[in-house]
## 1
Amino acid sequence: MNQALSALEFRGLAKTFKLGPWHKAHQALADVTLSVTSGEIFGYLGPNGAGKTTTLKILFGLVRPQNGQITVLGRPHADRSWRAKTGYLPENPYLYDSLTPREYLTYAAKLSGLPSQGLARRVDETLDLVGLGEARHRQIRTFSKGMVQRAGIAQALVGDPELVILDEPMSGLDPIGRALVRRLILDLKSRGKTVFFSTHILADAEILCDRVAILRAGRVVSQGPLAEILQVDVSHMEVICTGVVDPATLSAVEGIRVASAAGARLHLEVQNSSLSQAIAKIESGGGRIVSVLPERKTLEEVFLDEVQGTSPNRSKVASWEA
Amino acid sequence: MGSLSLSRIMAVTSNTFREALRQRILLGLVPFAIVLFGGGLLLRQISVFQEVKILKDLALAAMDLFGSFAAVVMGVDLVNREIERRSAYPILARPLLRSEFVVGKFFGLVAALGVNLVLMTLLLAIALWAMGSEMTAGFLPAPYGIFLTLVLTIALALFFSVITNSILAFTFTIVMVIAGRFSDVVRNMAEVLPDIPRAVPQALALALPNLQNFDFKLRAVYSDPIDPNVLVLVTLYAGFYCMVVLALSVMAFEKKELV
Amino acid sequence: MRYVCLIVGLLALAPLQRLINGVLGEFKEQEAVLLSWSGPTMKKLVPGFEGPVADLFWLRTVQYYGGQRVFAAGKKFDLVAPLIDVTVALDPRMDVAYRLGAIFLSESPPAGAGRPLEGAKLMKRGIAANPTNWRLGYEAGVFESDFLGDYVGASTTILAASEVPGAAPWLKSVAAVLLQKGGDRETSRAVWREIYANSPEEFMKRSAERRLKNLESLDRCDRIAEALASYRATFGRFPATLQELRGQGFRGPLVDLAEVPLAYNPQTGTVTVDPSSPVYQVVR
């Protein structure tokens, strides 16, 4: 990968935790190798205990890896200058609840090296961006979980970072909040920023991500563009229709299978060669075509396939993850 | 590793200061004021013309006890709480060095408790004036000595906060502070336990904070003049002792994994 | 229900406590508990807080003394000494503890413990612990003269206090008066001479001069008294006037140093300085 285009690279990252003299050592990361291109939205997926948070902790120096190399924004990990250009939202963030979000963001911005001139304006803009403009002078202890999450996102963005790392950014948000965050992420991408986020909500990853990596037991088991991961099947089409009077007539046609039915809505799996026949049959049967798309697996199906059959120490692993 | 930035340290210091004040430590001034003014009235009746002396003794003891308690309780949470609650994560993800974090936390709490002490001293001055007495400059070494005691206490609490959990940090700090007040007993251990190599109690006495160095309370109450050289020496002692403890704290925190 | 619990509970507490007091009260030893440790031990236990703990013990002393004096039937004052001991061990500079403590110990029963020697010992302890406190030394001397009647001892104590830098200039005068009161006229004279020669205060010099004249006048009275005793031995009576002594060969002056005739009582044979004389001094 051309380093100039790479926002973030992990190569052979490994981490073993020693739980204490009476416990076995726990290998949280065995071999994490992945690369995030500048300007893309990258999803980092995995079950509880897979090592996602450990990876991010290693990135920000909160824990040290046994092995591996990291490059951030083209710079070696040990060169701290990339930190000023990176924003980080940890999972379930705890912010100083006696401060107002304005005070907290000002503090965070100063630590990131933002100059005093224009700092106040930048803080206010960021708070408006996440929908906390009206609450800027309220103490964070009075915030709902969703508001705290948004304040956490704000502190990640206040320094106008090139690379934004979000650990479960949708956590605790209601649908409006989640829509806001999705818009924010897309907006960041439109401004040329790189977003790396880990999530359990596969629907969000499916909507937002250009590329994903799936982590299992400390290893990246699958990585690449979403379309490849979802294994788009070009031999079959997914046809959704409504209003067909007699669905049985469709099943009788070769190459057409009724995958599921919900009320009047039918979900058909149609071979490419039978597509025009299927459409004609639906319309002649009084139905209406809703959508025609290439047949593919959902991200959830891919995810479950990858993570099934994980290690017997799964519960202990889970206890290590935040 | 990166070089220290004074502006980042100042940012951590002022944030810690603000947080400490928002934890309402200044509310402690209310019962202090009640004790001072109420005590002053009561003492007139029962103390046989000793009310001024007793009030000064009482006030200084309250400043020492309350300040030390606050220093321990707030000091052991300085780093520990941030790690347990993970509020340190987005902070340490920034260009901030861990050493800057530790040093900033230290100075922030020192400033907060210092302000508290100054206000208590002012309240005492007002109480004395109300009783027809006054606080002379010769009295000030006593609260200054208490301030130096608090500085060392905070440094120790911070160190234990880095290396262990809140409960153990609290216990170890209290033990060190109490031992520091009994440092003469430790020094004299060599006489009481002749079988132990002399170097052991000597080393122990050196390692413990000699808080008796900063006790000017009785002398201040009796308006004894205190040699400025003594104040300089004890300030230097406090400074160097804190430097050692802070260095150890930084070293421990830099090695610490935030699991 | 919760209000019932609240009210019943509150109403029950006071009578219940009275019952408990009635049962347990007779076994309570309230006073001695405070004194399980000696003064030095207490000092070791509270480093850095000797002042307020000393104040606590002092308040306790005052309360105890007052309580015994006003309320107690027995009026024992047993705990005054140990309480003061702890107080001054914690704060040796607390001169009120020595001063008033000595009085508490020395006042005769039922006003005090009636142990003036212990009081004097306490004052001496105070002086030893506060060598620069001349006022305490002066009060110790006054204590010795008032409670022990030891005028010579008192004057020695006050003379020592007068040597402390910054001591009041009148201390030596007090010591001299006490010496005279104690019958040691020679030492008293020496002290007055020293005051007359060295005092920078004019009024002190005048006072010393008057005292010296008084002492000299008293010496003259003593010599006349000897002559009167001899006259009586010879004639079986005292002379009607002092002039009659001239007939017996007495040549000494019959006036004081202010040339005022000495006062003579022919019935009792006593001769003193006339109260109207300027060199007359009251020695109380």
## 2
Amino acid sequence: MPRIELINVSKKWGKFVGVDNLNMVINDREFITLLGPSGCGKTTTLRMIAGLETPTSGKIIIGDTVVYDSDKGINVSPAKRDVGFLFQNYALWPHMTVYKNIAFGLENLKWKKKDIDARVTEVMKTLRIEEFKDRYPAELSGGQQQRVAIARTLAPKPKVLFMDEPLSNLDAKLRGEMRTELKRLHNDTNSTFVYVTHDQLEAMTLATRICLINKGVLQQYDKPLIVYSRPANLFVADFVGNPTMNFIPAEAKRISKDTLSLRLFDIEAIFKADKDIELPNKSIIIGVRPEFLPINKDGKIEGLAYSTLPSGMETTVKINLHGDILSAVQFGLIDYPIDSKIRFDIVGNGIIVFDTKSGESLGVGSLTIKK
Amino acid sequence: MEQTKEKKIPKISFLKIWNLTKTFFSKPSNVILVFFAILLTLTVIYPLISLILDSFKVQSISEAKEINELWETSVKKGDFTWAQWPNLLFNKQNSDYSLNFFWDPLYKSILMALLACLIAVLGGGILAWFITRSNIPFKKYISTVFIFPYIMPSWSIAMFWENFFKNTTIASCNYQMGMLQAMTGICVPENLLYGLLPCAFVLGIHYAPFAYILIGGILRNMDANLEEAATILKASRFKIIRRITIPIVAPALISTILLVFASSISSYTVPAFLNANNSFTSISIAMRGLLMTAGKKGQGYVVAVILLTFSVLILTINNWFTKSRRNFTTVSGKSGQITKVKIGGTQTWVKWLVCIIICLIVTFFAVFPLVTFILESLEENSGDITTLTLRYWLSSESFDVRITAQGQSAEGIFHNYTIWKAFGRSVVVATLVALIAGTFGILIGYAVSKNRHGKLSSYVSSTAFLPYLIPALSFGAIFFSLSFTSGFKFLNVSTTNNEWSAVAICVLAGGIKFLPFASRSGTNAMLQLSGEIEEAAIINGCPWWKRMTRIMFPIQKSSFISCYLLPFISCMRELTLFVLITSSFSLITNVLQYFDTYGLNQISNGINLLIVLFVIIVNLLVNKLTGASIDKGIGG
């Protein structure tokens, strides 16, 4: 069963480093998303695993075979890596009908005509594109082309499926539908999925594990909820979640193994971590998810309503706290006049403390504000 | 229901039409379209129709006599007649006549054109693949130098062919020694020096860069993911080329083949140069012969019409292919990340070997012609390096009294006023033609891009491309007959005896003949500009001419300058188009031919060198200074 392993993989173009010394293991039947801002090296990583791009150095193992090893000069061609690849722009062949597009890969495997026909019909049924069988790609809509591309990739039953931002060319509604479908497909096909996206919501909803990359360097590789609740550093905390996490600068003093006394603006507070905590510098940043900032009349902190953004089910309230803008999320429709006074609290046990200098997470815990 | 419908039909009032017309003409693009629709109808469609009519007209008294004898009719000069067609195609009196003057030349020309196509498309296509899809080194050198044979006049390659392959065993070249024999002692048989095969080779070499530009353009724009998708699905390298790459570039390939075929079949100068003892009569040579013979002019027009039909057919097929439903879907992807094929894999010597072979071939056809022109202009006895002399360049004495007797100069090239005056006139013609064709092309491109699916704009864009497909000789013939029309006689150099008449008519003919690629690349450049760019300026109240000169032109500067570059170069090296409407001394190409007929081989080779160097230097200079290039001029 295929397990993919990347060992010290780097890719350089001249002086520019695309991917820097990446190490990761993708287990069988996982749904991994490579997440990061555009230009961070996630597509390059995917293309290197698929064999479309040659790494500068390192080692890549798929299943039991070493497919790339810079030291031993091994570089297995993409055709022999037994993988499927779904391109962002679908890359459907414009001169072949839908049927021929899907059948092409099976022909290359020297399948019998009867078997090809059966398999093509089967995948077309799964993806509900039987009616377009004899059409050319130019005669299909974006969503239909997308389905054909998936069908073409799935037809040879690859054990590993790579997807490069496959939903980014679709409209919002279709994107939502296809996400649901992809998750089901992952379950039905029993394959390993590796999925590139810059959309953190897509990564959160689809993946079994998220691999967050920035500027070619791996930031965090964890389950979605861990990435969300225990981000490894400021970059991850900022990238994942919408509205983004609030960052409040503070000064800290360690008062016991797991407790810090904090001062943020003119507020004194006690931070109690769920584990022992180290404090390399006294300057820290407190990270608070918007859902941990409940607004209520008796709140201990006072700010001004900067702007209110109701979206129906919930409302994002932007609060001006001594010039810093914080985001809070409230359930339901609320509206505050601009610059009216608002009182709120910091609650929950998912408050994160980061070291200002390194940006690394120091610990997670709860915050108690002293009156 | 029907009654109410009838009532609702509005009365067409004068005011309404006037308002509609006003709205229509308030858009500059519509004004341009109407202007060019009229201009191109007059300069392209009308002459075409008159050419067709001429093939049904008795052209001279001797022609009338022949027709009357054969068909027992009593037609006079200027009467309508069908007789020209059967007389040429199925002459009942003498069936050999039809064979010799039409069917055989046609057959040979088609064969020659097909062979030229094959060479051009294979050569250009393979090179395009290497440049865009592989990792061979020296790509920049190869692609720069490879364009040279297209920049050079096609007949200069023919001259090179002759210079290179002539040898002391062949009578038709006066037993002169060529470069190949001088270097290796190898003597090629005559049918490799003159006739169908060398003509096809020369045309193939001349048009290979053209094929390279068109095919390379498509390969460069083709989404690399299409090929990668096939790689992932386990298709072999060869299968990918066969099943994916070739079918996708097929429309471009077919249109390249058709364009090369169209220009090869009607090429006049190459068969004229490589045709010793009339051993190889191409259809263009046959046509010129007929047009120049007093009693056969009408039949010449018949040939012209038939060649024209070929061209229109080609244009139609081309349009049909590019409009098929499998056409290119242009979804832009991450095509930047093309993985180049590693030639020979880890064994780098294979890559270098391929590179060296390509460099050698390319250099041979680009640089060697220049070397032979230099040598031929310096050797007293052709092929004999021991007889080097500079006198054909420097001498101030006349080489031929017959030339001096005609009031022309026969001195060494640097002292020869006939040559330099003609050279000056050529530059003037080329500059004016470039200005006209380039500006018209850009304006047509603008108007067509603003009304992409309109009937008028598709009429204008196809009419503007039509001159490319009209054989240069027939095109010249059209203007030739124009210059005999009263009111236009000031354009006829043989009656005015003023070379500037020739310049004027050449500018007219060239401006139209070289419009096709200017309008095509102008349209491409305009289509690349999104409409919002101009609309943003309209909102700001910027007048039309200012939008063009201050916004559109600067953005697409290099593409637009390319619209001027290609007509300039084409015009500078043109002979066929101008041969009927000029005197022997009007343009530099005329003078070249003139010295060639007087056997002053050294001087004609020297002139050739001048033209080729001038054209190449202009091209490289414009390329360096403005970024404009022949590639963009072709619209590839």
